Amino acid sequence: MVSLARTIRSIRRVGLREWWRQMQYIGDAKSGRFVGADQFGNRYFENTNPEEEIPGRHRWVDYAQHDYNATQVPPEWHSWIHHIRKDPPTEDNIMQNLSPPWKTPWTENLTGTRGAFKTYNTTKPKYEAWEPKTISRGQSSV
């Protein structure tokens, strides 16, 4: 539940426009330290003050796209958001040196969209669909 004092404090910290955007997208007024951004423009925040945020909900992502889902978060940021790693990728030396040069760039999961992978068959089908033969009215069927 968002209290009036917390709402006013959040408006003063992030501004009216950002507060309204947060209420529309995540349904909560949050303010915290900007930790970093990924290659897609998603912004990541953290607020470790236990009086303002519930423990376990003190890290969050502000998605760059309007139609967002969890597959738009790269693996290194996912591990930070879910407390698998203590430090964010921007501050963690291991994560910065971890990416090998042969690794392909990360892309979101496109399942259920027009960009999803679809297989195609190059073999001739074993059976053909039935196509009815029609005759115009008034003609004899000879």
UniProtKB/TrEMBL annotation:
It is found in: Mitochondrion inner membrane. GO terms for biological process: response to oxidative stress. InterPro entries: NDUFA12. Its main location: mitochondrion. Keywords: Electron transport, Membrane, Mitochondrion, Mitochondrion inner membrane, Respiratory chain, Transport. One of its GO terms (cellular component) is mitochondrial inner membrane. It is a peripheral membrane protein. The keyword Membrane applies. Accessory subunit of the mitochondrial membrane respiratory chain NADH dehydrogenase (Complex I), that is believed not to be involved in catalysis. Complex I functions in the transfer of electrons from NADH to the respiratory chain. The immediate electron acceptor for the enzyme is believed to be ubiquinone. Belongs to the complex I NDUFA12 subunit family. This is NADH dehydrogenase [ubiquinone] 1 alpha subcomplex subunit. It comes from Trametes coccinea (strain BRFM310).
